[in-house]
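[09:14] KT: can someone run the structure on this one? pasting the chain below
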Amino acid sequence: MRFKMILLFCALFTILTGCATAPEGESPRAETNRDKDSESSADGTIANSTDGLAPKPSVATAPEAEPRAMAEAISKTGKEAAKAASPGAGVSDSPSPPPPPFAMPSATLKPVPGQSGLKAGYSDDNEQFNLFLKFLAQYESIPHERLFVSERILIKASDAAGKPVANAAVVVRADGKIIAKGKTYADGSFALYPLEYAGAEAALSYEAEIEAQAGRVKIDIARNGPRSIPVRLGGSRSSPAALPVDIVFVLDTTGSMGEEIERLRDTIDIINANLTSLKPRPALRFGLVLYRDLEDDYVTEAHDLTSDLEAFRAILADVSADGGGDTPEELEVGLNDAVTKMAWNSTGLRLVFAITDAPAQLFRPRGFNYASTARRAASEAIKLFGIGTGGLPLEGEYLLRQVAQFTRAKYIFLTYGEGGESAGGKEGSVSHHTGTNFTTDKLEAVVIRFVKEEIALQSDKALESDDPYFSAKKATDESREETLGKLFSEALENLSDYSGIRLPEGARLAVLPIGLAEGASALGNQAEYFGAQLTLSAAKAKSFALVERRDLQALLAELELQLSGLSDESNAAKVGKFLGAEYLVTGRLYARSDRYELFLNLVRVETAEILAATKARIALELGL
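[09:31] RB: done, structure tokens below
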């Protein structure tokens, strides 16, 4: 444990210094992405580029590596290193479960010059919601508390100008009884989980009331209706001159943690400088929860939030590492203290970063558990980010991903010494710059980026980032159809992973003809060709059962629609119902000077809503 956690904070100083000195307006990932793009153009035909660090709801990122698969490979590296440094010190030798069937392919990882050996990947299980549900089902046998998240409805509050409203009060009723209440997060979201509410599981509709300074709105929600419900308040949102931002670190202080504590002392000034340099300057406060185990001299020790950096330094100066021994530790109590014992602000942002390489002691009689803590955190719009180091076993990952997803946060995991990108297929054919279902960057840049993203949501100045995309280039050792087949297979998997609703295996899918941008009628044959290749890939996809497309022109005539009208989701859904499909893939093709761009949407027929979206950049030579 000591070796792995030493690496965590040893990298902290190096990367945060880089963030602090980066040119204004340039994200910490800018240099990394340029490096990756240059590598891709040299030897890859299909690449998943994430120029911006975090996935966006509007355009889903390309499939990234199932974190468990990477975590297992990392776990072996971390455990072997820990044994070499300190044999038997907090390292579990129990075998890991086999990786899930949707794990990333094996890869040769290449070192990237000039980068720290400690890197972080993350999983946004709210964006990759369907993939997250697969993860939970795959490892249902892991000891855990239940959070009933398989059915989810998102309320998204915004003001009259369309800006997200944070800290709006939300009350949800079923049959006149209150079943849920809480606050909206920085993006204006409040998650409703119908299966969470005892006595209301059978309700078919809900009444929700959303109230903030921007106004008060009541809405009716159909349980089988859209999964995302926008709510526009009539006034302007309240924006404090200095946005309150509270950050609490939950830190293990058992005997292996001495070097990490020292490193945190050395880097807290840099963290503070990175965040307080933003314009307008936020009102930043730090808090700390230390935890050990029952047999140690304390179980937890909570230090309340303070804006006095000198005072926080003094707290860190008195922290020492001791105790521990058995693998499970009192992470559950540490999380609960972070949520319940801090004097959180009521008008800004509330963020927790919990760092661990050990699972929690579960099922102890203490009046709460991590599931109840996550429920309380969600009701108070507190985000619980989990950071799992390389040796974290599956039991720990399961817990951290549960609480992160439930509180609209992300799960971060560390790699040790790996670099480069994971490759699938033949070298020079298919490469995923960041693996499948995770994005890598240096840990500290990731953490700072996440805090900045939260602040940007309540600022009039958006955080700069580029939309993620797939790209395809011509390879000399495979046919055009082979390359496009790989591209569209990955794109379809991406749409499935990022679906905002649970997709059953074998869901009935229809692929509609690809539409054209206005004035691009010359691309008609090209769109038909790409559509045919997309349909072939859909026929091979394990997640879907392809519905045969009948005489579309006759069907459109019957519905009094034109082919161009299928770009509208409501029109597409009408066609889907006649075809007997549950879901549709629709697309729109654009021509650029050096490539084609194809935007794909996954549409739910029942509600005509877009569940996921992705974008592909296709080299001109891959066309007709």
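[09:33] KT: thanks! The mean pLDDT is 76.
[09:34] RB: yep, looked fine to me
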